[in-house]
């Protein structure tokens, strides 16, 4: 090796250009500054993404709305969104409406939603989704949702408090199939029908419980404060029901007759229901107690093999509302045409109904039964924003807080929908994506990562 170096020429290396060393040092410092700026920019982007995505997704300070003196209905319902939070994670307060929303053509993306009576709050009722979206009732004052279970026989009903998110299990004895019928105006009683379930579905995908109970169920009256259920054996099969405005009487349809009973199950009268028609579910008894509202069967009524109850069926089929007197006194209101569902009463002379136009858009209107004049109150957004934008949205299982309709209900200008904290899986996914992006940017711009 020494001999090899000895052969090298002794000539001095050529001189460096003037200012070369200073130029190299300056470039080195500039490259280091750029790398440091890149790292800082990467973390700034991470912080901004967290502020704009993760923080709205968690909404740790979300609180239920304070009840106002005048509950309100939005003049339009917001569209479908997978970003809607749940009642159990962030209760939004009392609700004006409970409904199913979505489509299932490509993916099963249905939601069970409540909409605030005191603001533009939307929440998914996750307890309903956990029980297979069974029949449910919205409390007259909008503070609770009661549900059964469509996956099979159940030994309890579940009461969800919309103001706290808490759930209360109400035992009903040996497991039976359940169909909820009506909630009393004072909020104290619920009428439901119960029957043994002769089929089982281990996967919980077939909605067979409610139709079976509709054809063979026996009436039960539940007192919510005590959790005690009273069976009215003579009322079988209990098809549909509605409480009187005093909450002490109940009309229950069996075949084509509405049996009028008290809370002890004693019958004090009956009303004939026209052929092919049924008592409007939950809301059929007028506020003055004078008439019962009836609607056409959705299918073939109580004798329908498939049940014909309408639970889980999209709002689409319009018919006429006809009124029958409870007693032979006073005038009977005229027929109200083009109604998909009766939702409640504003007064003894005004009813709120759901309608559907030729394009399938659902609206809620107030109808003056004496004159037939109607005023549209609100509309649903049923545009093509379901199934990731591939399908039109549909509305089903619609209920209004009937007690709030009789108060000083107003229609508010709908603002931006406040959907609460994102569902946990979505929040976790976004957090992982943000942190992963930040790590990759750090790896790219960290000092010493530049290629030689």
TrEMBL record:
The keyword Transmembrane applies. Residues 1-10 have a biased composition (Low complexity). Keywords: Membrane, Transmembrane, Transmembrane helix. InterPro entries: 6-blade_b-propeller_TolB-like. This is WD40-like Beta Propeller Repeat. It comes from Virgisporangium aurantiacum. The chain crosses the membrane at residues 37-55, 422-442. Residues 1-23 are annotated as: Disordered.
